[in-house]
Amino acid sequence: MRIGVDAYSYHRLLGEVRPGERPPPARLAGAEALVAEMVDAGAEVLSLETVFLDPPARLDAGALVAAARGRELAIAWGHPYGLRWGADPAALADLLAWIDLAPRLGARIVRCVAAHPALRDGPVPQSRLDATALALRRACGRARPHGLVLALENHADLDTGELLALLDAVPGLAVCLDTANALRVGDDPVALAAAVAARVAIVHLKDVAEHRPARSGARSGGGPEREACRLAGPVSVPYGTGVVDLAGVLDALEAGGAPADLPVCVELAQLGPGAVDERLLVRQGVAWLAAQRRARLALDTSDSAQVSCPETVPVAIPVQLHTEEGT
After folding, report:
1. What is the pTM of this model?
2. Quick one: 227 exposed, middle or buried, by C-beta within 10 A (0-12, 13-18, 19+)?
3. What is the pLDDT of residues 88-108, one digit of tens each?
C-alpha cells in the first residue's frame, strides 16, 4: 500500500467546525499550507477535498503540484451533499469540471459522492439509485479519456447492497472505501472491504469510538440535538484504539485482490468536544500505517512460516491527543 492523508482530517483548520467540536486555536493559511502540512505528516498520496480549494476555473494547480514536492495528488469531490442522488445538474457539472482539471494536478483518482447522511432516510429507493447511476455514467465517460479512475465513496449514504448495485450499473466505476461510514449505516467494515476489494481504488481509513448506527427507516427521534449527533458521526480516535478492525480491513483488501499500490489514507472526521490536536492525530495514523506496512512486507519476504502479523502494531508516539475535558 501507499500511505495517504485526506485533507478532511484538517477540516477545523480550514474553517469547518462540525457540531460538537470546539474551534481550533489557529487555522491553516490556504491550500498550499494544507498540502505542505500533509507532506510534512509523511503522506505519499495527498487526497485534496475540493470543498477547501478554489473552483477549477481559478485554481492554481501548478502551485499545489509544487507544494506537493513529488507526492501524488488525488481529488476528493463531493463534500457535503455530492450528486444529491443525481438530482442536481449543477453538482454534476462541478464534478465534470474537476475531472477535466485532474490531469493538471497529475491526479489519477477522483473520489465522488452520491449524497449525504442527511439525505438518507432509510433504504435508498430504486428511482434514486437509477438517477445516481445515470450521473455516474456521465462522469465515468468524462474520466475515461483522461485515464482517470472515478471512485464512489460510501458516504454514510449507501449501504453495501446499494453500493454494489451502483457498481453493477456503472461500468468502470471504482470504490473509495470509508471504514467509519460503513459503521454509520450498520455495515461491517471488514465485510464491506471483502465485498469491494476487487473494485477499490482508494481507502479512507478511520478509527473511531463506539457508534450506534441509525437503522433503516425514518430519521432517529430525540430532537435536533440527537439528529445533529447522528449526522456528525462517531468520534475519531488514535489509530489502533477504536472499534474498527483496521488490520482486518487491510487483510480483507489484500485477500480480495486490491491493488498492491492501493492508496490508504488517514482521515479524521468528527473530533469531539475536547482540545484535539489533529496534526498529531494524523501523524500517529501515518506512523501506524507505516508500521503495518513494514510488518506486512516482512511477512511477505520472510522464509519462516512462524512469522505472523499482529492485529495492531504499536507505535511509540508519546503525545496527548485529547485532553481530559474531551473524548
Report:
1. 0.89
2. middle
3. 999 999 999 999 999 999 999
